[in-house]
Design goal:
Blueprint lengths: L5 H8 L13 H12 L10 E6 L2 H11 L15 E8 L3 H10 L3 H19 L3 E5 L4 H8 L5 E10 L14 H4 L8
Antiparallel strand pairs: 1-2, 2-4, 3-4
Helix pairs in contact: 2-5, 3-6
């Protein structure tokens, strides 16, 4: 097998981190991640993503108390991350509505997933660590942050520095199980 490319090294070393150092994230690194997300492709170039950055400790504490309470308490680990990125979808874009109605595919959510992954991979290259989070109280998060109804909260990213990397789960399905060429296995 050939030597992995720099991108492959990033892809294969990246994993979700649930323990963060209290070290703040430099603004220039945060902006580099946001620029990477901004560069993502989107359906009809609609760019439906919006990113709400929470790096104020008091606001993060209030948000955490609301969003990670009750049945969502298992996500409390994220409180230690110095930054939260709330991924929002602008829901009034035509491509998102039409794609969902005609194709049954919410393209705006796919677009936001691509942008979020651009953010995550840029963070990894810069020595920052992330965790995608979908398990939080969206209703309370919306109320706490006063997010207008024209935006849908899709997910959030915890962002910061990790003191050590947990071992990578080596269990991946073999390519032969997940890839077909020219026909779907029956």
């Amino acid at each position: 097998m050939t030597e992995p490319t720099p991108l492959q090294k990033i892809l294969f070393q990246r994993r979700s981190i649930r323990r963060y150092l209290p070290q703040p994230v430099e603004r220039d690194k945060l902006l580099a991640c946001l620029r990477a997300a901004q560069a993502a492709p989107s359906s009809q170039n609609s760019q439906p993503w919006r990113f709400l950055v929470l790096d104020n400790p008091e606001l993060k504490a209030r948000f955490s108390a609301e969003a990670f309470s009750g049945i969502y308490a298992s996500t409390r680990f994220a409180e230690a991350a110095p930054v939260f990125i709330i991924l929002l979808a602008r829901i009034d874009f035509v491509s998102g509505r039409v794609g969902r109605q005609i194709q049954g595919v919410p393209y705006n959510l796919l677009d936001i997933g691509i942008a979020g992954e651009h953010f995550v991979l840029q963070a990894e290259e810069l020595g920052l660590r992330t965790c995608w989070i979908g398990w939080f109280n969206i209703r309370r998060a919306r109320k706490c942050l006063k997010i207008p109804r024209k935006y849908k909260i899709v997910a959030m990213l915890a962002l910061g520095y990790s003191d050590k990397r947990p071992p990578r789960d080596p269990v991946r399905k073999p390519l032969e199980e997940i890839v077909w060429f020219n026909t779907v296995e029956r």
